[in-house]
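Limitations
The structure tokens in this dataset are predictions for the assembled complex, not deposited experimental models. Users should treat interface geometry with appropriate caution, especially where small molecules or nucleic acid strands are included. An illustrative entry is reproduced here so readers can see what is and is not provided.
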Amino acid sequence: MSTSTVTTASKERLRAWLKILKTARHIEKELRERFRTELDTTLPRFDVMSALSRAPDGLKMHELSSALRVSNGNVTGIVDRLVDNGLVQRQAVQGDRRAQLICLTPLGITTFGDQARIHEAWVDELLTDLPPSDVEQLMDLLDLVH
Amino acid sequence: MSTSTVTTASKERLRAWLKILKTARHIEKELRERFRTELDTTLPRFDVMSALSRAPDGLKMHELSSALRVSNGNVTGIVDRLVDNGLVQRQAVQGDRRAQLICLTPLGITTFGDQARIHEAWVDELLTDLPPSDVEQLMDLLDLVH
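Predicted assembly:
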């Protein structure tokens, strides 16, 4: 390959990356705003509840952090607030006095179910110009990136 | 359209959005780490310098904030540090005593040029499995989202 071909390839990949980033930031910003104004919650709170909804037996703190790929410190604050709101509870782990399992309360399960339906409808609206028949192709292309 | 078709469409769009988000977060995390460990800088600092590099006449603070879509407060701290490092300078605006123009210093211009080349090479490496010939198709699909 000539130098100019290599340069073009890297410029093309840079364009692709900047577009992915711009798209993700645009949609994420819109969702953050709607979570705040319409559901009086936040995207990180929703993400924590979403992770817990997939773990009916509960998660340890470090498991929750790694599921979300954020620091323990941030997750602790979010879990504290969710506990205050009665949406999440901490349970002792038998045989390990220092560990706790975090799980949704019954109220948390129904609240998350409602929020997840609304979230899915928002995404459907924001991505309305993307035909479902094109989704597989987009997934395949993004698989090459990730 | 039947209910199940509508449901499938919104589930497909949700899949697409979660994939876009996951891809963006994965690449961004990798870039953040490299900026920190290999260039002793941060992604927000790089973004500020990138915006300034496209504005040789300088930008007012609110123009810089809106170019980056972040709050003024965060940008002020980043600009302060870049000024301390001699990479950015503030200039008075003729006829408007309260306004300042922010621009790169000569050292900032060469430093950003070096960082931008390295950043492009990282992206080229991280997206190496994406053939440049597929980029246009990915851009077209993401145009439908954004």
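Some entries come with short summary sentences. For this one: Chain A touches chain B through 43 residues (CB under 8 Å).
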